[in-house]
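Crash report, auto-generated. Payload:
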Amino acid sequence: MNTLNQDGVLDRTEREPFDSADREIILAVNDPEQLDYVDALPMTDEEQDAKFSQVAGVSVFSSEGTTEAIYSAAGAVIRGSDLVVEEYYETAFAIIRPPGHHAHKISEGFCFLNNVAIATQHVVDHHHIERALVVDFDVHHGNGTQELFYGSKQVLFFSTHRRDLSYPASKSSVNDIGDGVGLGYNINVPLKKGFNDVDMLYVCDQLLGPVATAFKPEVVFVSAGYDAGEGETIGGCNVSAKGFGTIVRKVLIGLILYCKCCSGVLDLPL
Ligand SMILES: [Zn+2]
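Recovered output after restart:
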């Protein structure tokens, strides 16, 4: 927050209060058993070792305050989506932890609840949104979001990621295109290790733009993991800060122009 303040970002933004997520809203995508699990997370290293050591590969870690943070994170995204859908703002940005895009019916990959999926289902259920686009540019595949909306045609999931990072146990494929009525509403764009601004902007212009134009989303969620950024050694890719900014502007400004013009053409400027 100090850096955001020093850079003048806080002066240019409005900050909104939010509540922890309602259990009822979360339960639209999760089973009660998962909330029981979240409510009873271990708070000490000893308790954690006893509980999680029996579950190989799940990669979740908790301490005192984790449960509260999980409900707060989901609540922040819900609040942001309410404000945008109700047109108080054109865009909202939630700076939250823990993240969510690996979580589905179970918690995994540092993710307990899928914040974006919960908020997306919320706007579909409570704001009569018929077409929501979820763009996920984290370097890892958003397996949780894919799984939760794999059979939905109301939510189009579009994920760019490094194709050789099978984490947490995700085997993404371009052939994963949805199921049932959701056939064609799941798009994976696996990219080579080291992908950069040029690669991402090419995908935006040549694929995401036309897809969004055809889908005509009423709202867009961005799962904005920045681990494809240059200098991030685990991600091993080279998207610059300016590149991320351009991608987000293309997605969001394109949508805003589309909504205002209702022209049927999602022009992606910049
Ligand atoms: Zn990631």
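Post-recovery validation: The longest helix spans residues 241-261.
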